[in-house]
Design a protein that fits this description.
The chain is of the alpha/beta class. The chain has an 8-stranded mixed β-sheet with strand order 1-2-4-3-5-6-9-10, sandwiched between helices. The radius of gyration is 19 Å and the shape is globular. It has a domain of 200 residues: Rossmann fold (3-Layer(aba) Sandwich), CATH 3.40.50. The protein is 33% helix and 19% strand. Helix 2 packs across helix 3 and helix 3 crosses helix 7.
């Protein structure tokens, strides 16, 4: 990628120019961040819960090879503005299918997903194995299985929470939000946190800094997670896979059973652990992650 600073502010200065485009995807005006040239190899990056595609900027800036990087904001996050009563996980999979139909209609794609984005990418790659050739899953290992006997109380919890509504807190300034980001992810440099704050939030008419996400995302999921269904999708996957873990990640506990036994969710996957990194690996160790990703995607 071309590494010439393209923006200057008191926060992180981007090195590679980002473009914003919009596509209508299944009734939602999707916002997509793009870097690089369409003639270069496509690398689609999929963000996690509460994040936005634009915060892959730090990872893109550290890539040494030329890529056409495409990073959508999932429906109801970032600039993909929509309001809904509920959000259903299968919608993200269907949205990804439509996005790939636009960006890679004829060739299998290379996907990188973080957290929720990694879960979406892994499920998609099993549902449509012919559509994905390489997959980097960063901290997206699925959830703990749920007991079906919890269904009655879970449905009730969802209905009662929906009746009460949900809201994100607001902030006095971007700096206050950046400080919260650093408290939750203490290895994140403050300039990066300030950049992220401006991607996650905006000022309202009264000058308050408000999160750019539909509050309905904060509601509990009405449907219990069924790990056996996810495993059935993973078993159909044919892409080459790299799992990336942060050594200090709070999400690592979800991977410990298969790390300890060697029984990987995707048996053929490669596994790498980045030291001095928590869950938000692309904030905390973008250079190390970029090197790992390119080593996997471009062997030799």
């Amino acid at each position: 990628m071309s590494h010439t600073p393209v923006s200057r502010s008191e926060c992180y200065a981007a090195l590679v120019a980002r473009r914003s485009v919009r596509h209508t995807i299944r009734g939602v005006e999707y916002h997509v961040s793009e870097w690089g040239k369409p003639k270069d190899p496509l690398l689609m990056m999929l963000h996690g819960f509460g994040d936005a595609g634009s915060t892959f900027q730090f990872l893109v800036d550290q890539l040494r090879h030329d890529w056409y990087v495409v990073a959508p904001d999932w429906r109801g996050f970032g600039e993909s503005r929509t309001r809904a009563e509920s959000y259903w996980f299968p919608d993200y999979i269907a949205d990804l299918e439509m996005l790939l139909s636009k960006y890679s209609p004829d060739l299998p794609a290379t996907l990188l997903g973080h957290s929720m984005g990694g879960n979406i990418a892994s499920l998609f790659a099993g549902i449509f194995p012919q559509r994905v050739t390489q997959l980097v899953n960063v901290e997206g290992f699925g959830l703990a299985d749920r007991d079906p006997r919890d269904a009655p109380s879970n449905y009730r919890r969802w209905i009662e929470a929906s009746r009460e509504g949900a809201a994100y807190r607001d902030y006095d300034s971007y700096a206050e939000l950046a400080q919260r980001i650093v408290r939750q992810n203490p290895r994140t440099p403050m300039p990066i946190a300030e950049f992220v704050a401006r991607q996650w939030a905006e000022k309202d008419g009264s000058g308050r800094v408000v999160i750019k996400a539909d509050p309905a995302h904060k509601l509990p999921n009405a449907v219990l997670y069924r790990r056996s269904e996810a495993q059935a999708c993973w078993e159909q996957l044919s892409a080459s896979v790299l799992f990336v873990l942060g050594a200090q990640s709070s999400f690592r506990s979800g991977a410990v059973p298969w790390l300890a036994t060697g029984s990987l969710p995707i048996p053929s996957a490669n596994v790498a652990t980045l030291e001095d990194a928590g869950h938000m690996v692309h904030f905390e160790q973008p250079a190390a992650l970029a090197a790992l990703v390119e080593q996997f995607l471009l062997p030799g």
